[in-house]
Design a protein that fits this description.
The structure is a homodimer. Chain A is α+β, with helices and mostly antiparallel strands. Chain A is 20% helix and 26% strand.
């Protein structure tokens, strides 16, 4: 194992945290870190006293969820990261570590934390523009969009880890031209490509988080698929926003890719067009703008039941980038806490769907098919307007930069079932 | 203490469950039941083996939160209720119980459960109509209103128990006619009178809850104040609904008033006007309609700083009733789970603001003052459009029926601070 030098996702420079269960009889969920094609059992590593250079983190690793680890100041998480990195890079430790390493393929991943609250933002400006265009061709973005990071509260209970099936939800649907709604399975099931943001250290009720210190409250990132039932959404969302069209299932990738691991993969927030308003003072911070944007490559692939039967690989539908977010993670967090709303370690944000400009990289089928009007043609002769039963949707993410080892996020996938 | 025969809120017929801390040095949060002006320490009662006719509930009472109790089938909760009732009615138990009873006035109440998810509905049809009228005088209710129970996901972290202060939130506000928004304290701070619904037994992901069995998943009720910042809401809510205008604070009354205690205070759901649509099949159940509606009297009172200084009592602003809800609790729950969204014990619903017809009992200042256009005149000469610092808002609720002991909910109050 060692440093897993050339692993495409999990070299020693990544070291994402998660909760897993090894295949062993009767094993219980525990903390782990991905290294190459293995998972290092952090609970047992900590129990063996091997992480005592990071004492607070070592104590937090006894829990079956990572909320305690996320609650620690970043320095404690960094100490753990250094200790694990040192251990894995030390050939003398190989014998000690061998029994603590499990092949990833034999392990089951769980949610990394008990999610307190899940919030979904709308920071992908090209997505907001493309969706707005479907309804208001002349004024796709609402007047508030460039001033206020738009978001809504999501459902925490239905956030689930990657893999397994996504059951097509029933709901009230009013077909165009019909007099009355009907209750039936959605016919417009969609995915939404998002980045997930894990809140680390929390905040107290009534205490905003100034933009200058917001980064220390962000522990890490994941991929997020905000599955959406467009026909349910169209009928229910006025006047209070999306509800059951979203809360049937939200999929996340299992690993918390830390802010530390992603530090090399940041770029200045892209300059706003001159005509755009300057953010209000509470959202403005030069340092945040200078290192604010993440530079992560995102991919959406689709594998239908027929592709699987024919042994065909998944077909790439979209290649996006987190550079297309209008607000930085720090701005989202600071805005969220600006009314005094308390944040808790393990709260999850979705960034909102990330699409490229001018339909170049649609983060949802709603955009890719112009709301179902232009079917998407797949190389095996099939076509799609929205998802069909048996379709597998696979998101992946990689951070790449000259001179640095690339790191990945692990899978964020689901298969549609009736 | 005994049965607290004529207590206006907590006679032996009520027996609501909560989490409290007695005044004793070093005491920790524990389960309790309100009886008259006392709280019976249920944790210690259970630890003494006095509740072994309700073994599962007895075990659940060791926890510092009531999620475990709510997770039990209703029969176990009912067994606990009977055991407590028997004990309190048994004069021979007086000596044993005396050390387990604490004067309520000396205790501190906590949230009764760890709230997994909080959902806010919009089932008060007169409120929806009155608010709609402010924007669309000719068509106040949107076309979906009478078909689909409208709701949105709320923020669980900022739900807090009655008492204490409600800090006036900052937020982005765009004053009418201004070119740009500003970030400042809300100038349109409001209350919303709602009933809270506590989910008992949960459901698994992908498994809807049929309307015929929905009642068994509802453990009890509380009062809920969905504090709202109208100016923040007006600017942020398009297109994804209310967000920071709500998530700064939600107040609930501390006691879970059980479905069993409220059973005598139910009436058939009021007949819908003939022109209204029949609910879709998944929301329709004759038994639910026959016993569906709660008959609870609700009161909103206001006490300003000047009233307190002058020794004046709170002034009653509104007397409402839960009869004004368009959907039954069972319909709200069944709808929420109809897409497969999993419910967890201790999930909380707000019903939506409960107002009377035709402005007779406005459940918010937005309605009472016609969005601030018609100030409310108080008997001491003050007036209000929205809440000012120092204002105390007090909700109360009583269930009254000929031949039954009346029961109450306890306070749901908060004082506005800068």
């Amino acid at each position: 194992v060692g440093t897993a030098g050339d692993h495409p996702e999990f070299p020693v420079q990544n070291l994402p945290f998660g909760i897993f269960v090894p295949q062993n009889d009767g094993a219980t969920p525990r903390a782990g870190v991905a290294i190459g094609d293995f998972i290092l059992d952090l609970r047992e590593t900590a129990a063996s006293g091997l992480l005592n250079t990071a004492p607070l983190a070592q104590a937090a690793l006894a829990a079956p969820q990572l909320n305690g680890l996320l609650a620690l100041p970043p320095t404690d998480r960094q100490a753990l990261r250094r200790a694990v990195s040192r251990m894995l890079s030390d050939e003398g430790m190989a014998t000690v570590l061998r029994p603590l390493l499990h092949p990833s393929a034999t392990c089951t991943m769980h949610l990394p934390v008990a999610i307190g609250d899940y919030t979904d933002f709308y920071a992908g400006i090209h997505h907001a523009t493309a969706v707005g265009k479907l309804f208001r061709p002349d004024a796709p973005l609402l007047p508030n969009y460039k001033h206020v990071p738009i978001g809504y509260h999501g459902r925490a209970s239905s956030v689930r880890v990657s893999g397994g099936s996504v059951r097509r939800p029933h709901g009230q649907i009013k077909v165009l031209g019909a007099d009355e709604p009907v209750f039936q399975p959605t016919e417009r099931l969609d995915y939404e490509l998002e980045l997930g943001i894990w809140v680390g250290e929390g905040s107290s009720a009534g205490s905003p988080i100034p933009i200058g210190v917001a980064e220390r409250h962000i522990a890490g990132f994941c991929l997020l698929n905000d599955w959406s039932a467009r026909d349910i959404q169209a009928w229910e969302y006025q006047p209070l926003g999306p509800f059951l069209a979203k809360s049937f299932h939200t999929t996340i990738s299992p690993w918390i890719v830390t802010a530390e691991a992603l530090a090399p993969f940041r770029l200045p927030q892209p300059a706003r067009p001159a005509a755009d308003p300057t953010p209000l003072g509470y959202l403005r911070d030069d340092a945040d703008q200078a290192r604010g944007a993440l530079d992560i490559r995102l991919t959406i692939a689709l594998r239908t039941a027929r592709m699987r039967e024919a042994g065909l690989p998944a077909f790439t539908l979209c290649k996006g980038t987190t550079q297309d977010l209008y607000w930085t993670p720090a701005q989202l967090l600071t805005h969220h806490a600006s009314n005094g709303c308390d944040m808790r370690p393990g709260d999850l944000f979705g960034t909102g769907t990330i699409s490229g400009p001018d339909d170049t990289a649609p983060g949802s089928l709603l955009e890719a098919t112009q709301s179902g009007r232009q079917p998407l043609h797949l190389p095996n002769g099939e076509s799609r307007t929205f998802l069909e039963d048996g379709d597998q949707v696979l998101f992946s993410a990689t951070a790449v930069r000259e001179g640095y080892a690339s790191i990945g996020f692990g899978p964020c996938s689901g298969e549609i079932t009736p």
